[in-house]
UniProtKB/TrEMBL annotation:
PROSITE patterns: MFS
Annotated transmembrane regions: 44-63, 70-97, 103-121, 133-152, 158-180, 201-223, 235-255, 267-285, 291-313, 334-353, 359-377
Residues covered by the Major facilitator superfamily (MFS) profile domain: 2-379
Location within or outside the cell: Cell membrane
Coiled-coil residue spans: none
Higher taxonomy: Bacteria, Bacillati, Actinomycetota, Actinomycetes, Kitasatosporales
Membrane topology: Multi-pass membrane protein
Protein name: MFS transporter
Length: 423
């Protein structure tokens, strides 16, 4: 089981590295394919567009495919997308390759989260999912700086080639260590889409878009804030971003146990603390030490939101959690685009480089309002549980627990364990 979670974390590490390394190599890429740096920035948008499109589409296409086989197919597509990026001769094909590389992103995280939650006892599901997410946060500490250095020293193509190698390692790890998890007879795109119609799923996705948009409103402009306001040199910003990644890792480690214990309160606390931290950063950004401390804290509380949102969506989608879990990452990429756009509007309006912090705080508060709305609407409903097995072919035939939306664990050792209330 630990090796299976490690294999999923390696997948997340590769995804995190390829997603953010492009930002640090834009000058080299622009020079290599003969375009301006702002034009090369569209490659970031191409990847994000791939995530938004690929999460629901690929999850729907693979709705009847056993989870392990689907993970292997998606990982193979991830490798192909990054190899195509390394070999692309011009900007047009590179744009297409980045879109291709982004397609499996959301589906890999969605399917991986469902698989991780089913590897452990129900009361430890969020901790298992957060261990997979650790790969993404560690990528910000190790993978992105290493990819940036590799690209700067040997050429940007080698950065994408390196990510493809990580993808191959992940593919082999998944094949060796992740157990087979069969789909039930009900599995299919129609079943998944009906689960997406749940209003709690819709509110959860909206919370992710708006609330996490506050995080990205600041993260997108963190480097110019540090250089223009804090006085940190360009050469030191990579180390600061790594510090941001340390905060994200600490937050992810805490988020799992807290979410297992109290899902909605953890989500509320994360959004409240994010809003408070962004307001604080508006003032501390002008001093080096306070700014670095605040940055670390923002990274931590930002990650405190990710796991509870993921688990909430999986719980409310009941026995069809895969598309909801995957769509969460489409929501995060929409948050990335929307938060960056609103933060840029504030800067363009002449409000100063620190203004995205106030925009981000406002978005976090709006996300908190959506989260509270979902909680209020959910009062008096049956307890929410994350489905940990998809083996039952007929809910009524499988027994009363399954008929109520809770699958019976497939391992006999868990037969006496009740799923933990997450709602």
């Amino acid at each position: 089981m630990p090796l299976a979670l490690l294999a999923l974390a390696v997948v997340a590490f590769g995804i995190g590295t390829t997603e953010f390394a492009t930002m640090g190599l834009l000058p080299q890429i622009a020079d290599g394919v003969g375009v301006s740096v702002p034009h090369a920035g569209n490659l970031v948008s191409a990847y994000a567009l791939g995530v938004v499109v690929g999460a629901p589409v690929l999850t729907g296409i693979g709705a009847r495919v056993p989870h392990k086989r689907l993970l292997l197919l998606l990982s193979g597509l991830f490798v192909i997308g990054n190899l195509a990026s390394a070999l692309a001769p011009g900007f047009g094909l590179l744009f297409a390759a980045r879109f291709l590389a982004g397609l499996p992103h959301g589906a890999l995280f969605g399917v991986g989260a469902v698989v991780a939650s089913r590897l452990v006892a129900p009361e430890r599901a969020a901790r298992a999912v957060s261990k997979m997410f650790l790969g993404l946060t560690v990528a910000n500490i190790v993978g992105v700086p290493a990819g940036t250095i590799l690209g700067q020293q040997l050429g940007w193509r080698w950065a994408y080639a390196g990510v493809a190698v990580i993808g191959l390692i992940a593919l082999a790890s998944l094949a060796l260590f992740v157990p087979h998890q069969p789909r039930g007879r009900q599995a299919g795109i129609g079943h998944e889409l009906r689960a997406m119609g749940n209003r709690q799923v819709a509110i959860g996705l909206a919370t992710a878009v708006v609330g996490f948009g506050g995080f990205f409103a600041v993260y997108s402009y963190l480097v110019p804030m540090l250089t223009n306001l804090t006085g940190i040199s360009d050469s030191s910003t990579t180390l600061v971003l790594a510090l941001y990644g340390v905060g994200m890792t600490l937050g992810t480690l805490v988020a799992g146990p807290l979410t297992d214990r109290a899902l909605r309160p953890t989500l509320y606390a994360g959004l409240i603390l994010l809003a408070a931290a962004l307001v604080a950063f508006y003032f501390t950004v002008h001093s080096t030490v306070p700014a670095l401390v605040t940055i670390t804290f923002i990274g931590a509380v930002g990650s405190l939101i990710t796991t509870p949102v993921q688990m909430l969506l999986m719980a409310k989608a009941k026995d069809a959690p895969t598309m909801a879990a995957a769509s969460n990452h489409s929501a995060f990429n929409l948050a990335n685009a929307g938060g960056a756009w609103l933060g840029g509007l504030a800067i363009s309006a002449g409000w100063g480089w620190a203004s995205p912090n106030l925009v981000g705080a406002a978005l976090a508060v709006a996300g908190l309002g959506l989260a509270f709305t979902g909680g209020f609407m959910d009062r008096g409903s049956p307890g929410s549980v994350v489905i940990i097995s998809s083996g039952a072919e007929d809910p009524k035939a499988a027994g009363p627990d399954v008929a109520q939306g809770v699958d019976v664990p497939s391992r006999s050792s868990r037969s006496a364990e009740a799923p933990r209330n997450l709602g």
